[in-house]
Here is the input.
Amino acid sequence: MVKPLIFKVALPVPIYRLFDYLAPEGINLDMIKPGVRLEVPFGKGKKTGFLIEISTHSDLSTDKLKPVLRILDDKSLLSAKELRLLQWASHYYHHPLGEVISAAFPTALRQGKALAVKSEKRYTLTELGQTTDNHTLKRSPKQQSVFDKFQSSTHYLSDTDLSAWNNNWRPAVNELITKGLIKAELTETKPSNPKAIIRNTPLICNPQQQQAIDSVYNTLGQFSVFLLEGVTGSGKTEVYLQIIQAVLERGQQVLILVPEITLTPQLEERFKQRFAVNIALSHSKLTDKQRQIAWLQMQQGVCSIMLGTRSALFTPIKKLGLIILDEEHDTSFKQQEGFRFSARDIAIVRAKQLLIPVVLGSATPSLESLYNVEKQRYQLLHLPERAGSALAPVLQLMDIRNKRIQEGLSEALIAEIHKTLAKQEQVLLFLNRRGFAPTLICHSCGWVARCQRCDANMVIHFDAAHLKCHHCGQEQALLKQCPACKAGELIPLGLGTERVEKALAELFKDKVTVRLDRDSTQGKGSLENYLEQINAGHVDIILGTQMLAKGHHFPNVTLVAILDVDNGLFSIDFHAAEKLAQMIVQVSGRAGRAEKPGKVIMQTRQPDHPLLVTLIQEGYRSFAKSALQERKAAALPPFSYQALLRVQAVDIKMPQLFFKALSTLIEKHNTGQTQVLGPIFAPMARRAGLYRYQMLFQNPRRQELHVFLDELIIEISKLKQAKKVRWSLDVDPVDLY
Ligand code: ADP
Ligand code: ZN
Ligand code: ZN
Here is the structure.
């Protein structure tokens, strides 16, 4: 008897195995390859899954198996290597394969919709538009602002660009088309011509830049990892551009990953200025349709460059020749929920598989990457100076012990701000806490506004007139009276950006301040609008949170002040020192580009703290060296490997029962050197109504840790106590909270 064919299918469900289905009758096996999408019955409904393997064997008896309903693709949208990469990632991060593959697809394809390759419209100024003065549109401010946008952009703007800029651009653009000022065209659907990729000539490089470019150039077509270390303004982007050029000339495509969406527009602009090729964007602010077009255009080789955030890493790419990760130290490259992958680490695996180089760029490389340089796994490319004539900023600590402080600003700092503003230069103030104040306390009885669902205080937001928990999002109206004693005055304690903004408005009455934090930049395009105003010189003081630490360039800023550097010095997470040092150097990098040297002031009550002193006197590299020595002494990563098991439940007893059952399993499987730390309460023991526990696994040998985890995870997924809790495993955690 002929055995029936079995399709082993990965389904997007949180279950650690493949599902068996009967192959459709009369199927031509030569025509169907792993990776194709299938529609299968699942429970009472249907699901879209992915074919992984064709077999004649099933653990279930074949009369129990259901047939596949439909085969959705003629050809797999993933290459065999791309599928293997996803399988590797699923295995390494211990996340179900179906969910991993599904996450790599755009939403519509994930849901089983048919392929529809459309190209996007893009718009440019007509000849008339190029010579027309924008004053002719004075009577329609909307059209005028759209027209300004076109005149200030060097090249075309696509649907995607315009939607990212403003939600309601279409009517104005249509008017401008009618007036003959703008024209629309469809993007090319042919791959770019390798002979005509350059739009503007490259800069002439300094010797270090040239050496960096040559080193990468010489490894094109081979696997190699480069760490491009250079402060802001040292010319890293120019190095990227020239390496990209070489890859495009070989007829290959390039993937560039950045940690933040907000960094894409400025890079995109530079790419468009330099290259006459199609550029695809991929990040979460795009519509599903836009993401799908970008995805397919890379898959088919129509776009030459993809610029995106971490999830863009899984885009199928026909002829990938180079991967660049800018700001490689940034922990945003690690996904912190669901499928907890590191885009940096998988990028390296992908490059190894494809035999192509990877370039990791940063002014403040991660300790892991520096360690890998030391171990000669990565090759260091160093740009020690700012490109052109720019000078490096001067860092200094400002001791504020026993000094008079007004809303976080010492008198000495206020004087420095006045001095800078008097020269018509800009000031940037950094405070990593949004809202008005982090605590609302009763002056009479000491009552504090706490979140009812978290171990956390409610943060005061005066602008939005509410109290808000930054951990679970819970909101409540501002209180007029203390709910405990019904008499005492309620006082905001501590400092947030809203509060400093109010103080600045008082102190610098005739100056313009903008506040950049997650609250003030909610609206689409609002951050870009602020950045435009700042760069046009309409702003005197820029106040913001970590948003400012990431990549944005403020050429006219000559004074940077970090208002509360001490706040980062006392964390229980061993990653904290590294993150703080990176933040300080990154924020400093915003100051004094071009010919104006900058000054960076850090207000502190810990002027002798070794981290701060080393960083200021000897620089980031010395800090990194001593931090690595400390990690080594404590056998912490990168000298060991970790995985964090997080367990949460509404009922505090459930995690306890879970860990009790787990301890037997651990004993059985932990035959190697894996250290087991915990279970302990998470640093925030309760969040969004759930009690949170964690257990850390650590081993000096990665392989051994993973063998142990492989066995353990399978057992956990069968455990009945595991069904009563939410649990997750975080491999190589970057955050122990
Ligand atoms: P980074 O990416 O390290 O911040 P960029 O590549 O953006 O540095 O360079 C900073 C500035 O210096 C940019 O304005 C860039 O045009 C300029 N620049 C870079 N390389 C050179 C060079 N070789 N000669 C002159 N200017 C340069
Ligand atoms: Zn009270
Ligand atoms: Zn909360």
